[in-house]
Design goal:
Number of domains: 1
Structural class: alpha+beta
Order of helices and strands: HEEHEHEEHEE
Number of helices: 4
Shape: globular
Radius of gyration: 14 Å
Strand content: 25-35%
Strand order of the largest sheet: 2-1-4-5-3-6-7
Helix content: 25-40%
Number of strands: 7
């Protein structure tokens, strides 16, 4: 992954729609925002911010992105996510991608989904600890 793309991932705003309305923003290397931490089952619950849009960070037609996102939502539920919330990735350059915030999937299950949906990276964490950019090595 080139440095510009890595920088864009690190500087993006990862917004999660809250059940009560509004949103909370996840930022790489910052603690999970309190409204999202309140959704955790316990202090060690894993979470992931993931999208199926634009595999390998290459633009795809919106119709394909929407279909892939529906498939991701289904896959998250089938993999055992305890909770899934609508989300949106927002870059400083105006980039926007529909995303999902899921609670309760193991890191192994997360890796499987990131690979299945051909994503370069995801934002992950354990409990309220700082969010981490998790870069994948895709074949």
């Amino acid at each position: 992954m080139d440095e510009a793309l890595l920088k864009a991932y690190k500087e993006s705003d990862y917004r999660v729609r809250l059940p009560s309305g509004g949103h909370a923003s996840i930022r790489v290397d910052q603690p999970l925002p309190a409204p999202l931490a309140a959704m955790l089952a316990d202090e060690n619950e894993p979470w992931i911010f993931i999208t199926a849009w634009n595999p390998r960070s290459r633009p795809h037609p919106n119709v394909l992105n929407r279909m892939a996102q529906r498939d991701l939502l289904k896959a998250l539920r089938e993999a055992g996510a305890r909770s899934v919330c609508a989300a949106l990735g927002v870059g400083q350059d105006g980039w926007r991608e529909s995303s999902l915030f899921a609670l309760g999937l193991s890191p192994v299950a997360q890796d499987i989904l990131v690979r299945r949906f051909d994503q370069n990276a995801s934002i992950r964490g354990i409990g309220a600890a700082p969010a981490r950019l998790h870069v994948m090595q895709l074949d």
